[in-house]
């Protein structure tokens, strides 16, 4: 038996997948979920092998939900219209189904999964994660796991980011959150008008800077509104000068 | 020109030139003058100097005047048989002729430039007005016809799901979707009654309720008076769509959308509220494309920027629209 999970916020959209799956004998639908939170719970509980996943859903998108998973099951995206996402995940998921789709098209996607089933690799995981984060940037928010809870951070609440081994610590007015990601990723994806990378290990939100102090010889320190001090590296200084217009 | 020719003739004749010479001279030289005036004015209708290049026009006037005098000097004096005395008078008259010609051409030029500039300005104004009108119409129609593709494709998907399990409902939903789409295809901005606008909105809400099941509830509060008031067509649906999206995608629970209409002299006031999560919703997100385009449309239709307002109370996001009632 192959364990299947359906995540979509529209009951009828889940319904049609259930109907189409009747064509396959050895598949078991372990749960149907209406949003990403329920989805995460069901994934942890049932460890499904295949997930039918909608993208536009309450609170967190399908992409954001995937970001929070440690292990990546096989994914077939089902979406109505999402040009950007389409381009992005074309090469990464098992398949994507554009709503409305018919049984024939559906079978093609499932057959692709069945053919791939044995040869699942980490390769897919890495790719989907990256895609998820790319599309995420347009939403102006970052979804992180904080203990057992899921926290949605608005990028406007961030004061600065600091890298720490494989993680990036995100400092916000609500506290510090860890994200399994590189600082270079944030440098590439956060709005360059709002954030600047001033050091190998630091990025700051530009409007949080109150003062720039000389530090040792040739070095500088940024004083944030919160009082925090951030070192500026030699390569970071010209970038900082450019964004501050000094 | 005839007046000038007469004066010219009289002057020459009174200076004791022969009758024939005075006549020939006055006719010929004024003919040439007329020709030159026509020439310069005609030229100016095609080309007018820009900025400080008027000096070229003055130079041209000077050159033409010189040309005129030269013609008079060599053609008339040399080829006509004129007496010694006549020649002297004519020679004496050359600087006067030059000045006179320059003045006349100068006046003609000034008049032409003013006239053609004025004409061009009028044409430009007219074109500008037409362009503005076209842009406004195009903008209005593009604002009107913004149909969310998400809505359309998801509705079709719901219908597809219903065809197998509940064919009658599938048929009903197809009908509702068609009626709704027909309504959105309306091509004009002629005001419609709130009653018919709400009927159209109802079609949309029925479809959304099928899509989202029991997660979506709507409560419409209205009264007889406001139902008779007028509103631009297809105005409410995008606002409600915005509220539904905002409400449904920002919370996990069931969502109540409240729509209330009231008539408060001289405006029809419509408020639409949806729940939202103050924790995660960023204020910047509040006015998405949906509301901006409505605001723009109201501004184009009523020339006012204060007809759409949004406010936040606890966990409700409220959009208020005022529709001025003219009659």
TrEMBL record, chain A:
Protein known as: Response regulator
Residues carrying 4-aspartylphosphate: 54
Domain spans labelled Response regulatory: 3-114
Coiled-coil regions listed: none
Domain HTH LytTR-type: residue ranges: 142-246
Domain of life where this protein originates: Bacteria
Keywords carried by this UniProt record: Phosphoprotein
TrEMBL record, chain B:
Keyword Transmembrane helix appears in the UniProt entry: yes
Domain Signal transduction histidine kinase internal region, chain residue ranges per copy: 138-216
Entry's transmembrane regions: 30-47, 54-76, 96-117
Keywords: Coiled coil, Kinase, Membrane, Transferase, Transmembrane, Transmembrane helix
Coiled-coil intervals, chain numbering: 114-144
GO molecular function, one term: kinase activity
Protein's name according to its UniProt entry: Histidine kinase
């Amino acid at each position: 038996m192959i364990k299947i999970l359906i995540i979509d916020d529209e009951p009828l959209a889940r319904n049609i997948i259930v109907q189409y799956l009747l064509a396959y004998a050895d598949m078991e639908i372990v749960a149907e979920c209406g949003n990403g939170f329920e989805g995460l719970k069901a994934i942890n509980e049932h460890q499904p092998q295949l997930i039918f996943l909608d993208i536009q859903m309450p609170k967190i998108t399908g992409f954001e939900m995937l970001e929070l998973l440690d292990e990546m099951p096989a994914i077939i995206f089902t979406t109505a219209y999402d040009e950007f996402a389409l381009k992005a995940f074309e090469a990464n998921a098992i398949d994507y189904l554009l709503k409305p789709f018919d049984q024939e098209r559906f079978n093609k996607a499932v057959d692709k999964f069945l053919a791939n089933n044995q040869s699942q690799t980490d390769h897919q995981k890495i790719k989907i994660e990256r895609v998820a984060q790319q599309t995420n940037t347009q939403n102006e928010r970052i979804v992180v796991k904080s203990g057992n809870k899921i926290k949605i951070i608005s990028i406007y609440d961030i004061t600065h980011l600091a890298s720490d081994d494989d993680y990036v610590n995100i400092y916000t007015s609500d506290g510090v959150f860890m994200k399994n990601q590189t600082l270079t990723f944030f440098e590439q994806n956060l709005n360059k008008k709002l954030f600047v990378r001033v050091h190998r290990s630091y990025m700051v939100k530009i409007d949080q800077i109150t003062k720039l102090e000389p530090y040792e010889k040739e070095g500088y320190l940024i004083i944030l509104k919160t009082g925090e001090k951030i070192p500026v590296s030699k390569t970071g200084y010209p970038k900082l000068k450019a964004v501050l217009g000094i | 020109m005839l007046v000038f020719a007469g004066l010219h003739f009289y002057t020459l004749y009174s200076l004791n030139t022969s009758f024939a010479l005075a006549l020939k001279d006055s006719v010929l030289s004024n003919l040439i003058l007329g020709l030159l005036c026509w020439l310069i004015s005609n030229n100016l209708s095609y080309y007018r100097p820009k900025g400080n290049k008027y000096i070229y026009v003055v130079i041209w006037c000077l050159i033409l005047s010189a040309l005129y005098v030269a013609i008079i000097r060599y053609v008339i004096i040399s080829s006509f048989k004129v007496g010694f005395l006549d020649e002297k008078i004519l020679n004496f008259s050359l600087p006067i002729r030059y000045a006179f010609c320059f003045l006349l051409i100068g006046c003609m030029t000034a008049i032409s430039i003013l006239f053609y500039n004025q004409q061009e300005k009028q044409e430009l104004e007219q074109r500008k007005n037409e362009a503005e009108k076209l842009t406004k119409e195009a903008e209005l129609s593009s604002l009107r016809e913004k149909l969310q593709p998400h809505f359309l494709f998801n509705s079709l998907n719901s219908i597809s799901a219903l065809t197998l399990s509940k064919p009658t409902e599938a048929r009903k939903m197809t009908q509702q979707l068609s009626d709704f789409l027909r309504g959105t295809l309306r091509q004009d901005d002629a005001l419609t009654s709130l009653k018919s606008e709400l009927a159209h909105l109802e079609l949309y809400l029925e479809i959304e309720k099928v899509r989202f099941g029991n997660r979506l509830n709507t409560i419409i509060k209205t009264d007889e008076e406001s139902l008779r008031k007028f509103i631009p067509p297809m105005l409410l649906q995008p606002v409600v769509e915005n509220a539904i999206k905002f409400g449904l995608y920002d919370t996990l629970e069931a969502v109540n959308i409240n729509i209330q209409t009231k008539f408060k002299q001289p405006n029809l006031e419509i408020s639409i509220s949806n729940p939202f999560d103050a924790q995660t919703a960023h204020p910047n997100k509040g006015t998405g494309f949906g509301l901006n385009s409505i605001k723009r449309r109201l501004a184009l239709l009523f020339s006012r920027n204060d007809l759409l307002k949004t406010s936040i109370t606890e966990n409700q996001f409220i959009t208020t629209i005022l529709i001025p009632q003219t009659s």
